[in-house]
Amino acid sequence: MSTKMNEADWVMAVEVFRACLPARGAKARNDRLFLEALHFFAVHNIIWRALPERFGPWNSVWKRFSRLSQAGVFEAFFALLAECSRTAHVTQMFDSTVVRAHVSAAGAKGGPRRRDWGARGADTPRKSI
């Protein structure tokens, strides 16, 4: 899988991203740096705190990402990118979610345990205290 973006890809992505931004609010200084941070975050599968310092404070990147996500900017961004692509109808994947099970979920026999509390035979001793 190629994760490299050339200059033409970045120019188009930034233009489409700016077209999707809300009209209200302060304008960011460097949209490309923000998109590069998101690209790095997704490709390297890291936590926000592990973003390199060249992208600025990790918390600022995360706050902007959270704000724009709640405003629906990324849905519009991906829809516009898909319209610009000649092959978007063939393959389209933007989510890199990983679902992990807890360690205790591996190997144990699951489900409710059924106990037969039918009539005891005469030769079975009582098991109460």
Automatic annotation (TrEMBL):
Residues in Insertion element IS402-like domain copies: 7-77
Residue ranges of the region described as Disordered: 105-129
Pfam family, one: DUF4096
Segment forming the signal sequence: none
Domain of life: Bacteria
Classification via InterPro entries: IS402-like_dom, Transposase_6_like
Compositional bias annotation for Basic and acidic residues: 113-129
Protein name: Transposase
Organism name: Amaricoccus solimangrovi
